[in-house]
From TrEMBL:
Protein name: 3-deoxy-D-manno-octulosonic acid transferase
Pathway annotation: Bacterial outer membrane biogenesis; LPS core biosynthesis
Keyword tRNA processing: no
A GO CC term assigned to this protein in UniProt: plasma membrane
Listed GO MF terms: Kdo transferase activity
Family membership noted in the UniProt record: Belongs to the glycosyltransferase group 1 family.
Function: Involved in lipopolysaccharide (LPS) biosynthesis. Catalyzes the transfer of 3-deoxy-D-manno-octulosonate (Kdo) residue(s) from CMP-Kdo to lipid IV(A), the tetraacyldisaccharide-1,4'-bisphosphate precursor of lipid A.
E.C. number(s) listed in UniProt: 2.4.99.12
SUPFAM superfamilies referenced in this protein's UniProt entry, alphabetically: UDP-Glycosyltransferase/glycogen phosphorylase
Positions annotated as active site in the UniProt record: E36
Positions of the record's site feature: Transition state stabilizer: E106, K184
Length: 401
């Protein structure tokens, strides 16, 4: 389920290729990695549903992101690995693709990408845009701000007012900024109303390096004490090896779900089977099944928040009605965390032991699980208006063909 990084790296060194001809005159949507591809998928679907007629070119920097995009999007979308941020490659790519607008999802502030697009009068729109305080300070320090980079031809559709203010400080005028929310926020799915107290799983999604100790603490508490199945979804292939090694050293039974298993057993049945007989920790090594796993989750732990990565998508499990637990490093998803906290859908734990204790307490409290699950659905529903607001902003700015 993982791999193909060498192929992606080679593709990133190429400029125009024959497949770009099919995307000539397109909207070019760029999404860095798997998380941004989720947002890009929502945006592309919104474009198509709104009657958009031009071709759509989607680029990403990872082979996994590209594989997911190709699996989930229509044949009206041309997908490929993005070129590196080098002027010569970008000139060749832009010449071949000839886009009339570049929609950049979230946090990809690549100077040459912006400059080369502007030189060709390609409108640059930052969608679901975020910029951390650290990145803002670095851009200012390096002189990569002001009208030279963010001048005419650049628009920002920010996730929050906090992010909008940071873009203003980088030189984007208020007249070219709108606050439209987070495109990763899906509307609640049909199964979101399923009682979380009756669900068999606890899902640790997008685990990052340094979070293996929490996986071990959860494995000891959830599978062997809480009567639920722990499912861990590592973010990358190296994470799979680290988690398996940690579980093996701790003597904890585990089973890996690989791509070859998808056709033999539905994911929900696989998760329920983990607690039959001897409890085992389930490891997801498949592509694109994490959202489905959340549908079986009483509790979802958001990876990248228990080590300094800023956090991954907390609204994905919320749209499936799971109670949410995050760690102390959630600054990259602060708006989502705040909205979930306002609805009583989230617990924030300061560390590994507190998180394991919080999960254990929740599993013993069906009413708390139900309250949090309902709050998660409310938060996801409110957040999922971003695509509509973004379409309205594009129209208001006069950026449609």
């Amino acid at each position: 389920g993982f791999g193909a990084r060498g192929s992606a790296w080679r593709s990133a060194w190429s400029g125009a290729t024959s497949d770009l001809a099919a995307a000539s005159g397109s909207v070019w949507v760029h999404a860095a990695s798997m998380g941004e591809v989720v947002a890009a998928r929502t945006w592309i679907q919104a474009l198509l549903d709104s009657g958009h007629r031009a071709p759509i070119l989607l680029t990403t920097r990872t082979s996994r992101g590209l594989a997911r995009a190709r699996r989930e999007l229509t044949d009206r979308v041309v997908g490929r690995i993005a070129p590196l941020d080098l002027p010569q490659l970008l000139r060749s790519f832009l010449e071949g693709a000839a886009p009339w607008r570049l929609d950049v999802v979230e946090t990809e502030l690549w100077p040459h990408l912006i400059l080369e697009s502007r030189r060709r009068n390609v409108a640059v729109v930052f969608l679901s845009a975020t910029v951390s305080e650290r990145t803002r300070a670095r851009l200012l320090r390096w002189g990569l701000a002001g009208p030279g980079v963010f001048g005419e031809g650049v628009w920002v559709l920010a996730q929050s007012e906090r992010n909008a203010e940071r873009f203003r400080s980088l030189g984007v005028p208020s007249s070219r900024i709108a606050v439209t929310g987070d495109l990763k926020a899906e509307p609640p799915v049909e199964t979101a109303s399923r009682d979380p107290a009756a669900r068999p799983g606890v899902v640790f999604g997008s685990l990052r390096p340094g979070e293996e100790d929490l996986a071990l603490a959860l494995a000891r508490r959830v599978g062997f004490d809480g009567g639920r199945a722990l499912v861990v979804a590592p973010r990358h292939e190296e994470g799979l090896a680290r988690v398996l090694g940690a579980l093996e050293r701790a003597g904890i039974p585990r089973v890996v779900r690989r791509e070859t298993d998808r056709g033999t057993e539905a994911l929900g049945d696989w998760i329920a089977g983990l607690v039959a007989g001897t409890p085992r920790v389930g490891i997801l090594a498949t592509q694109g099944e994490l959202p489905l796993a959340y549908e079986s989750a009483a509790v979802a732990i958001v990876g990248g928040t228990f080590a300094p990565y800023g956090g991954h998508n907390a609204l994905e499990p919320a749209a499936r009605g799971a109670a949410i637990v995050v760690g102390p490093h959630a600054e990259g998803i602060q708006e989502s965390v705040d909205s979930l906290a306002r609805e009583g859908a989230l617990l924030s734990a300061p560390g590994v032991e507190a998180a394991a204790e919080s999960v254990g307490s929740l599993l013993r409290d069906p009413e708390a699980l139900r309250r949090m699950g309902q709050g998660a659905v409310r938060a996801a529903s409110a957040a999922s208006e971003s695509a509509r607001r973004s379409l309205e902003a594009i129209e208001r700015f006069g950026l449609n063909p």
